[in-house]
Amino acid sequence: HCGFIGFCLIPQGYDIYVRIRPDIFFNGKINFADYDCTKKVIYIPEGNDFWGINDQFAFGNHEVMKIYYSIYQHHHKLWHDGVTFCSEKMQLENLKDNGVEIVRFGSPQEHIVR
Length: 114
Description:
6 strands; two-stranded antiparallel ribbon; 5 helices
């Protein structure tokens, strides 16, 4: 729940909101101007899906990222619906259930270092 609460403390009005795990860093640059964050689209790197969707890094507009973080509020529903208890799988189903289009870019190996 801390991630969702932290997200809710961020003011609305920014063009892009980014979620990155605290134990990784980027090995390059992303030109956010190349991505259309005006729609219900989330951008996530290719790979590291582990039966769901890569949950190490994501970005999008406020509406989309609020849905992304809402996994903490909806995990019990997903579990009840039979989704395997796996963060990557639950996040994929959460995004799909909420009508978020998932757009992939590059590979984690190009950008993410652990």
